[in-house]
């Protein structure tokens, strides 16, 4: 497929997991892709190598998108490499679970500074590179935004904020032909899920038992939806939140 031919995309937090899959699917659809990473150069280089091995065009750019100066560097280097921007995927994010009695200011700010403020500042810089023909911004949110979880009050709040930002910016940027949508995955089998011990947990089994499609997601399940939102096929779609959870409901 070549639905993204001629387009340039920045995918934040793309060294692994959902971000890596989105970057690879974008490249397979014809886009030139900036694989952003914060600390895992090895992972980002691997994603770029995978893309190039299949004939795609990608570069890796380091930037912690919780920091204004590094965000500015990310888009300056994107402009230097490709001259423009058509698509931004705000995928970089973190999650930490904590019961109420253990919530601290540090726990709060660590998640809000990246998941919410970082997303806003990244978007602010990105739109400066998007031309008059418009573009697409895709925010990777979570099912816990509309369906908050216990011991995840702060994380759930960050994702609810992302969904609110999505709607607000879709209205603000619509006149510039910039579409803004969010994807809300449920549990996805990523490196992070394995590292957190969820991959083989009773929690996963509980989710699968209450999911009509009977499994958790793979990164590609999210990436294919991102390709649609990035493409001109979604040219009349903005301000929307799509739950990608196999039919799971609380």
From TrEMBL:
Domain Ketoreductase, chain residue ranges per copy: 7-191
Pfam (any one): adh_short_C2
Keywords recorded for this protein, A-Z: Oxidoreductase
GO molecular function: oxidoreductase activity
Family that this chain belongs to: Belongs to the short-chain dehydrogenases/reductases (SDR) family.
Matches recorded under PANTHER family: OXIDOREDUCTASE, SHORT-CHAIN DEHYDROGENASE/REDUCTASE FAMILY (AFU_ORTHOLOGUE AFUA_5G02870), SHORT-CHAIN DEHYDROGENASE_REDUCTASE FAMILY PROTEIN
Protein name listed in UniProt: Enoyl-[acyl-carrier-protein] reductase [NADH]
Lineage, broadest ranks: Bacteria, Pseudomonadati, Acidobacteriota, Terriglobia, Terriglobales
């Amino acid at each position: 497929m070549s639905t993204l031919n001629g387009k340039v995309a920045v995918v934040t937090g793309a060294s692994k997991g959902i971000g890596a899959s989105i970057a690879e699917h974008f490249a397979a659809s014809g886009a030139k892709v900036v694989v952003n990473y914060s600390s895992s150069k090895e992972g980002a280089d691997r994603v770029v190598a995978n893309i190039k091995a299949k004939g795609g065009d990608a570069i890796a750019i380091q930037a912690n998108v919780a920091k204004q100066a590094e965000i500015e560097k990310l888009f300056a280097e994107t402009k230097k490499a490709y001259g423009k921007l058509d698509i931004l995927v705000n995928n970089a994010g973190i999650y930490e679970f904590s019961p109420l009695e253990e919530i601290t200011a540090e726990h709060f700010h660590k998640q809000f500074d990246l998941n919410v403020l970082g997303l806003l500042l990244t978007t602010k810089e990105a739109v400066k590179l998007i031309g008059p023909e418009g573009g697409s911004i895709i925010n990777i949110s979570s099912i816990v935004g509309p369906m908050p979880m216990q011991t995840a009050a702060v994380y759930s709040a960050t994702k609810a904020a992302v969904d609110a930002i999505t709607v607000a910016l879709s209205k603000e940027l619509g006149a510039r032909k910039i579409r803004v949508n969010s994807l809300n995955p449920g549990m996805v089998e990523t490196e992070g899920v394995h590292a957190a011990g969820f991959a083989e947990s009773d929690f996963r089994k509980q989710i699968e038992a209450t999911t009509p499609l009977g499994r958790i997601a793979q990164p590609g399940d999210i990436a294919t939806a991102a390709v649609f939102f990035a493409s001109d096929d979604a040219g009349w779609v903005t301000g929307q939140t799509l739950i990608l959870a196999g039919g799971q409901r609380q």
